[in-house]
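Dig into these lines:

——
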Amino acid sequence: MLEIIKLGGWVMLPIIACSVVALAIVGERLWSLRTVRVMPAELIPRVVELHRNQRLDAMELRRIRASSPLGAIVAAALGSQRQGRETLKENVEQAGRQVVHELERYLNTLGTIASISPYLGLLGSVLGMMKVFANFSAGGSDIANPAQLAGGISEILMATAAGLALAIPSLIFYRYFQGKVAELTVRMEEEAVRLLDALDRVDAPGQPS
């Protein structure tokens, strides 16, 4: 591994550093964006039960808000339940934007790594080509030395390959996480609306409580 790093030149150091950061972000987001964490299945039944028992007070709302991203949207909806549909919608959308900001944490960094990695590889390639031509210029009659030529080409190829090897999976995960966040946001808003409809049915005359 050390020989490969030396072969690629000094530009391999920022590529490796970006690889470590990207790997950490991917692992953290895979853990944080699990559906069971973002949208715990027991939250909605618990809210309905609290409402049925008339225990849905301010303290419970704070606990719900802090429990999960879905809890934050649900708490915003519950807090606006009696303020009209327009206000409720605005509060749910505002809570949704805050949740999205939290769910997208570190994704800008991952996207930046995916964008700059090919350029780092290109920089390494340019530096390798400069090294080849510098050796040729200094070699005089030995301009076609196969060892010099092979070393320069190896540096060019190694830097390019390393940059692409980092950029491709980083871009794939970046797009995947973006889609995951969008899907979860829509599902959470739908769950909040369904919850309010369920609570209205509980409160409706003639419905079982």
About this structure: The chain has a mean pLDDT of 83. The first helix runs from residue 2 to 8. Residues 4 and 28 are 28 Å apart (CA to CA).
